[in-house]
């Protein structure tokens, strides 16, 4: 794939017992080119303007409208999560104490999670 670089040590534990590793993450993660397409494919079915509601019942879909960068960026700060992990990253990794996303029982693949985490770790820029 064009624009992708091999990343070593790009791994996480998926909440089960087996390690899951991603071998390709963009060298510089772009919101518009790398992250937004993941959100569109995996998140917008529940987190678009049509499903957005506040206040959202605990665990319901649509707790945020991910069509807006400003709404997304609210959930990327480590202050929104637990023990320095942003709410967004904790949810997509299915970390303990977070609402597992996607809520329909699916899970993003290791490279999608690694890409979003790299973007969040780099400051979640609107680039």
Structure description:
The protein is of the alpha+beta class and 127 residues long. It has one domain (31-121). Helix content is 29%, strand content 9%. The protein has helices at residues 31-42, 69-74, 87-93, 110-121; strands at 4-6, 11-13, 19-21, 24-26. The strands form two sheets. Strands 1-4 form a two-stranded antiparallel ribbon. It has a two-stranded antiparallel ribbon with strand order 2-3. Strand 2 (11-13) and strand 3 (19-21) form a beta hairpin. The longest helix is centred in the first third of the chain and has 12 residues, at 31-42. The protein starts with a strand and ends in a 6-residue tail after the last helix. Mean pLDDT is 77; it is low at 1-19.
Please count the helical segments.
4
Largest sheet: 2 strands, antiparallel
Regions with little confidence, pLDDT below 50 for 5+ residues: 1-19
Spatially, the strands of the biggest sheet line up as: 1-4
> Percent of residues in beta strands?
5-15%
Radius of gyration based on Cα positions: 14 Å
Q: List SSEs in N-to-C order.
A: EEEEHHHH
Helix/sheet category: alpha+beta
- N/C terminus separation: 20 Å
Count of domain modules = 1
Mean pLDDT across every amino acid position: 77
**Share of helix among residues?**
25-40%
Count of beta strands: 4
Outline, from the CA principal axes?
globular
């Amino acid at each position: 794939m064009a624009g992708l670089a091999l990343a070593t040590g790009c791994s996480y534990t998926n909440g089960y017992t087996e390690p899951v590793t991603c071998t390709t993450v963009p060298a510089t993660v772009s919101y518009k080119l790398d992250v937004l397409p993941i959100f569109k494919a995996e998140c917008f079915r529940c987190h678009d303007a049509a499903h957005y509601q506040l206040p959202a019942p605990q665990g319901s879909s649509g707790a945020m409208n991910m069509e807006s960068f400003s709404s997304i960026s609210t959930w990327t700060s480590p202050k929104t999560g637990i023990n320095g992990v942003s709410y967004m990253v904790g949810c997509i990794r299915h970390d303990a104490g977070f609402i597992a996303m996607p809520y329909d029982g699916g899970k993003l693949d290791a490279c999608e999670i690694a890409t979003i985490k790299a973007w969040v770790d780099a400051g979640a820029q609107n680039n």
